[in-house]
TrEMBL record:
InterPro entries: Bit61/PRR5. One of its GO terms (biological process) is TORC2 signaling. The gene is 106051733. This is Proline-rich protein 5. Signal peptide: none annotated. One of its GO terms (cellular component) is TORC2 complex. Belongs to the PROTOR family. It comes from Biomphalaria glabrata. Pfam families: HbrB.
Amino acid sequence: NVFFPFHSISSAIIHLFQRKPLKENELGILQEHVRFLINSEAGGLVQEYYKDQLLRKGMIILREKIKNEQGVELLKQLGETWDYFFKEILPVLQAILYPLTSSLSKDETVRSLTLLAFRNIVVLKVSIKEALESVNKCDYPPNISQMLLILQSIQDNVFLSENQFKLEKLVARVICPYLGQRGFYDGSPDPIIKVKLKPSPFNIPNVIISDNDKTPSKSHIRLEHKFVH
């Protein structure tokens, strides 16, 4: 029966986002539940359930407390939320779900999945852009700069995603000068020197069949390669 392990893990993770720490000896029990689920018929669902259900619920809990804030107060509250999340929640999530590591693809980790959710559901869903515009750069809280740089270091599965570009614009406001994926920034959200993104050239083989024989055979087929830009 996989219901009890799922319920136990779900409750513990949601409690973390509600700032309720794990009970004594609870971590080891939760890790055993994760191992049990991975080896059960529901093993393939653990990652998706964490990403699509638990992370979403948890991040909404964090966002609800700050979603109506503006300006300096938003930056202050967001910075405090980030500090607690990064220092108290993220390490425990990584510990609970450590047995899941072997089931993830090489480009994914519990840490990256969780940080991307914080970026997409918390940071990019509040009025941080307007807050940064309304405050002098010298008054930006240090933890906001730390948050943006750490989040910008996490790559999406989708190359150059829109959310990654949105975050890059925020980083460019805080870090000056800044070299991002779209170019070189000098304090504004738009690069003063833009990078021209072009696909890398690759070889496509062309099969050329001799006019003397309509049926291709090894003796009449030759391969040519041309570069496509």
